TrEMBL record:
<dbReference type="InterPro" id="IPR005073">
    <property type="entry name" value="Peptidase_M74"/>
</dbReference>
<dbReference type="GO" id="GO:0030288">
    <property type="term" value="C:outer membrane-bounded periplasmic space"/>
</dbReference>
<protein>
    <submittedName>
        <fullName>Uncharacterized protein</fullName>
    </submittedName>
</protein>
<dbReference type="GO" id="GO:0004252">
    <property type="term" value="F:serine-type endopeptidase activity"/>
</dbReference>
<keyword id="KW-0732">Signal</keyword>
<keyword id="KW-0645">Protease</keyword>
<keyword id="KW-0862">Zinc</keyword>
<dbReference type="GO" id="GO:0008237">
    <property type="term" value="F:metallopeptidase activity"/>
</dbReference>
<dbReference type="GO" id="GO:0046872">
    <property type="term" value="F:metal ion binding"/>
</dbReference>
<dbReference type="InterPro" id="IPR009045">
    <property type="entry name" value="Zn_M74/Hedgehog-like"/>
</dbReference>
<keyword id="KW-0482">Metalloprotease</keyword>
<keyword id="KW-0378">Hydrolase</keyword>
<keyword id="KW-0574">Periplasm</keyword>
<keyword id="KW-0479">Metal-binding</keyword>
<dbReference type="Pfam" id="PF03411">
    <property type="entry name" value="Peptidase_M74"/>
</dbReference>
<dbReference type="GO" id="GO:0006508">
    <property type="term" value="P:proteolysis"/>
</dbReference>
């Protein structure tokens, strides 16, 4: 079985590749609402999302050392 020119990446293959590259670059440069966030949100502390991929609103930074706790990793 031999491959014809279309299966080796002829003109159609090159056009498809160009289209795919342009489409993926468009989505990678699209702006998101998170780009405008510059400071933490001031609110009551609460968890948003799941433990695997969530956020904590209203949290404050803990000191690196204190009575009854220690930093495990940072």
């Amino acid at each position: 079985m031999t491959l014809d020119n279309g299966m080796r990446g002829g003109k159609v293959g090159k056009i498809y590749l160009l289209f795919a590259l342009l489409l993926t670059s468009f989505f990678s440069y699209a702006s998101t609402p998170w780009e405008t966030v510059s400071t933490p949100l001031v609110a009551d502390a609460r968890a948003v999302g799941s433990y695997a991929n969530g956020c904590l609103i209203g949290a404050v930074a803990l000191p690196l050392e204190g009575e009854g706790f220690q930093v495990v990793s940072c």
